[in-house]
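Page 37, top half.
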Amino acid sequence: MEVVKVLLVDDHEVVRLGLMTLLEDVPWVQVVGEVGTAEEAVTAVSTHTPDVILMDIRLPGNSGIDACREITAKWPVSHVIMLTSYADNKLILQALQAGACCYVLKQVGNEALIEALNKVRRGEALLDPAETKQTISKFRQQARDQQGNVFKDFTERELNVLAQISQGKTNPQIAVALSVAEQTVCNDMNDILAKLNLSNRFEAAIFALHHNINFHLPERDKK
C-alpha cells in the first residue's frame, strides 16, 4: 500500500483541522474526508472506502465505539484507530473489543499517530478484535488465578514504564518522561513482557488498563 487513505472523525472542527494540517505534511497520507458524528462516519466510509478511520472515542449521539463496531463489521478491510483525550480503561477496552486496531491519546503527540498509520501502510498487524478478546479473557483468568497485587514483582520504574505504555507513548517519549536512556526503556519493556508472559506492547497496554495500573503507581507519580 503506497498511499493511506484516511477519514477523520471528531466532533470538534478545530481538532479535525489540526489533524488535517499534520497529515498534509505526510506524503503517503491522503485525507479523503472529515466528519463530526458517528452517523456521518458510517456514510463517509461507504462513500470513500478509507484505509484508516481516525475517530474520537466520544461523539455526540452514537459513540465512536458504536460507529467502530458497525464499520468493522461492514468494511473489515478498514482500520479504525481510536483517538481519546483520557486513558479511560473501560472505554478503551470497549473500543478494542468493537474492532479498533489500536488507540492513541490525543495529548501524546504526533509521533504515535504517524507510527500507527505507517504500520497500516506497511501492512503490519496492530491488534485485531479476536486477539483482543482472547487477551482480555486471558487477563481475567489470570486475575482469578492470582492473589494479591499482580504488579508485586515490578520495580518502581517498570510500573512507570508500563503506565506510559498504557497511554500510547513510544519508547523515546517514555525515555524523556522518565529521564532515562531509550535503551533502558527497551530493557524494561522486555522485562515487563517476560514477567507478564505477554508477547507485545499492545497486550501490555491492555493488561495495564485492565488492572488499573495507575492505582499501583507510587503516590507521587499518580495523575
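Page 37, bottom half:
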Amino acid sequence: MYLILNFNLNKLKNKTLSLPNKNTIYQDVPSGLKVLLAEINHAKAKVLMSVLINEQYDIYHVAHSGVPLLRDVKQLNPDVIIIDIESPNRDMLENLNKISQFAPKPIVVFSEQQCANTTINQMVKSGVSAYVVGEVNQTRVKSIIDVAIARFELFQGLKQELADTKQKLSSQKSIDKAKRWLMETKQLSEIDAYHFIRKIAMDNSQKMDDVAKNILSVASIF
C-alpha cells in the first residue's frame, strides 16, 4: 500500500506540514502544477514537499517509489514526476521504461548514491530529464524542475519532428513506387503519373500516400 496525497498551497500557508495517516486518499484535485512524488522515506518526503510548497507548486501526490507508477501517472496526469531513492534499481528502471512508452512525462530522479554510467544511460533512454546525486539542495529544486520540463519538451518536439520526417519519407516512397508502376503500365510520364495520383486523392478527399498505397495493392495482384 502507498499514499497519494494532495496538498493545496493556499490551505497550507502558515501551517505546519505533516503527512496524513496511511491509506489516506484525497480525491479533490485543485488546479495548478501537478507533481507526482515517489519516495520511500516519509521524513525525506516531507522535506521535498516543503520545498515544493515554498516554490509555489499547488498539488502534490506522494507514492511509494517501490511500486508500479504507470497507473498513477495515467490516472493523475502529472506535469512532472519526481523520484527520490537511495540508488536506482531494476524495478525503478522498469517503471521508467513503462512511463516513457505509455505516458511520457518530465522525470527528475534524486539519488543518494552515484550509480554506474550504464545505469545513467539506461535512465536517460527511459526518459529521465534530470538526475541529481546527494542531498536535496532546497535552493536548486525549482530550477532543476524547470530545466527538466524544458528538456522534456525539447526532446518531445525533436521526437515528433523525427516521426513526422520518417512518415513523410515513407509516404514519398509509396508515391514514387506508385508513380513508377503507372509509368510502366499506363505509359504515363512522371508528371502525369503524379497528377493522376493527386487527382484521385482530391476527388476522394484522401491523402496521396493512401491513394499510392491503394495503387500498390492493386499492382501486387498483377
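Margin note: The CA atoms of residues 41 and 148 lie 23 Å apart.
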